[in-house]
Design brief:
This protein is α+β, with helices and mostly antiparallel strands. It has one domain: Homing endonucleases (Endonuclease I-creI), CATH 3.10.28.10. 41% of the residues lie in helices and 19% in strands. The termini are far apart.
Length: 181
């Protein structure tokens, strides 16, 4: 069984040199069996996150980069289920997420950060096996954003503004006004 170790920064990696790191775990390294797609969709309804963020980027004309990520984070003792989800979806990596300074149990994250992989594996998975809870609406918006990024629309002013509006829309998705509780 492969051990999970702490993810190192690129600065730490350069100090270590060419020493083999055990993380992140990729599809080729995992020997786990696949899960039923409906089980995975249900699990993601409860534990998955669709994230669109903006960050500074020195080489881009606008100076801001658009990032799309799919994440499931669990305690490290549940790493086996993440391995099986990764195998079922067909892409992504599993990372160690240490929270020692907070006194929390160790965690692991399953992440897909490549929009190419999202277009090839994640989106078709959810199109065939749709989510059932309110996260389904978030997924539909996330899907639009990923496809816009793949078409390079995020590099135009109009596309960037549309992505911002879509992201703001999905951040509010499912939240009820205080008066309706």
């Amino acid at each position: 069984m492969q051990e999970v170790s702490r993810v190192r920064s690129s600065k730490e990696n350069s100090r270590i040199g060419r020493r083999r790191l055990r993380l992140p775990l990729a599809k080729e390294q995992i020997q786990a069996s696949k899960l039923h797609p409906q089980y995975v969709a249900g699990f993601i309804d409860g534990e998955g996150s669709f994230v669109v963020s903006f960050g500074r980027h020195r080489t881009l004309k606008r100076g801001i980069e658009v990032r799309a990520e799919f994440i499931i984070e669990l305690r490290a003792d549940d790493v086996e289920i993440l391995k099986r989800i990764l195998k079922t979806i067909g892409c992504g990596k599993i990372y160690d997420a240490a929270y020692d300074k907070y006194g929390w149990y160790p965690h692991v994250k399953y992440k897909i950060t490549s929009t190419k992989d999202m277009e090839k594996y994640l989106l078709p998975f959810f199109d065939k096996t749709p989510l059932q809870a309110k996260k389904r609406g978030v997924y539909k918006i996330f899907r639009k954003i990923v496809l816009m990024i793949r078409k390079k629309q995020h590099l135009t002013d109009v596309g960037f503004a549309r992505i911002q509006k879509l992201r703001d829309k999905y951040r509010k998705y499912g939240k009820k006004p205080l008066g309706n509780r």
